[in-house]
Amino acid sequence: MPAAQQAPAREGPRINDEIRVPQVRLIDDAGEMIGVMSAREALIRAYDLGLDLVEISPNAVPPVCKILDYGKYKYEQQKKANEARKKQKVVEIKEIKVRPNIDDHDYDVKMKQMKNFIGEGDKVKVTLRFRGREMAHQELGVKVLERIRNDLTELVKVEQMPKLENRQMVMVVSPK
After folding, report:
1. N or C: where does the chain have the smaller number of CB atoms within 10 Å of the terminal CB?
2. At residue 71, what are phi and psi to the nearest 5 degrees?
3. Spatial distance between the Cα atoms of 171 and 167, rounded to a whole number of angstroms
4. Average pLDDT of the chain?
């Protein structure tokens, strides 16, 4: 015996006959506040104008409804959502790998890369890998990471202080 099928819940505000409350606060198509009236009377006014009755604020007492073209309203809402999505910046974590005995020129190149990433608003994960006997001289690695932190002080805040994970030290910085 199949279960009773339910109509799928529709996204967005309730419109026209879906508004099942005794009274609503009505705003007409020109944006003028008309006042509190029965939902039925508001629906008749909307139909007379050839428009829809759309519930704008369902949590108000009584709910606020507006007379407007629902198709146009939906289109405007979608446009706003797309604009907001366009302006959104996804923060990525970029990784820079360094060594404990890094040369000055190599260090400068890595710093330039980090500054570019931070300028774009991305976080930077600095990974310092130890090989072989370098593990005995972890203080050299700490000095390199301290130097990076000091050189970027005005641009970044340290999100994760340097910590040792197996044979590598990791530090995460993000733009201020």
Report:
1. N
2. -60, -45
3. 14
4. 87
